[in-house]
Amino acid sequence: MIKHRTGIILxxxxxxxxxxxxxxxxxxxxxxQKVQKGYKLVWADEFNRAGAPDSxxxxxxxGLERNEELQWYQKENAWCENGKLxxxxxxxxxxxxxxKAGSTGWRTKRDSIHYTSSCxxxxxxxxxxxxxxxxxxxxxxxxxxxxAWWTLGAHRPWPANGEIDIMEYYRHKLLANIAHKxxxxxxxxxxxxxxxxxxxxxxxxAQFHIWRMDWDEEGIALYADDQLxxxxxxxxxxxxxxxxxxxxxxxxxxxxxxxxxxxxxxxPSKTTFPxxxxxxxxxxxxxxxxxx
Length: 292
Hints:
- The protein has helices spanning 14-19, 21-26, 196-199, 201-205, 262-265, and strands at 8-11, 40-45, 59-60, 71-73, 78-81, 84-95, 112-117, 119-121, 131-138, 145-153, 163-170, 173-181, 187-195, 209-215, 219-224, 227-233, 252-260, 275-286.
- The protein is mainly beta.
- The strands form 2 sheets. Strands 2, 4, 5, 6, 7, 9, 14, 15, 16 and 18 form a 10-stranded mixed beta sheet that branches. Strands 1-13-12-11-10-17-8-3 form an 8-stranded mixed beta sheet.
- A hairpin with a 2-residue loop joins strand 11 and strand 12.
- The longest helix is centred in the N-terminal third of the chain and has 6 residues, at 14-19.
């Protein structure tokens, strides 16, 4: 989700997926099962409350955060109702409190804010090293909208801390991404992209779907509705800065956000608002020797 796309992008081909199929198949257990075979539930948020998300699990980003996005993040745009988390993107006009006349910075040169939304994250509250992560959600795929469920490493600055985009959508594309630090100091991306029309377009997006990550000492595999999208072995993810560090051998925290526009999100000017990203639940399972 932190998309400074000047880094290297590695689009994972079908041949690469086949090459690691044995590893992936060992982990391909239906996320629709009530019991995750070989795993124990260690954390979940079912959002079965009214009002703000549970403060024991989530805190908020505030303001203009990244990627030259258009929205101002605020906590008012995220709440729980009817057993679901709702993150609502709105078209709202207000003064930009960061505005500085004559500035060229993307956060400070605009005199007004035209959109608001929310990003909630478990940073400094909940983090995990390895496990099976599952989210059931429904995304809005109209122009200019950029929903995501992703993780960041708890230590070191980006991209050396590592990033996993378990679910990301923008510009008619559903993405699965993993990033670490490349030899040039920029992000090195492993990515797969699915055209949303090939999945069913608006009809597909009107339904809830299940996204999953299986992450262990051997590698990371990302799924949508039990279909493997991306897998990357752990030994391919060592930071290329001479440190020898692998950012995916440390705890990660998760983020749920609904961005608008910016470097990747597209043009929202003809989209009607409000728009919603809805989450039924998020669950984390670990094996008996998992480290939290």
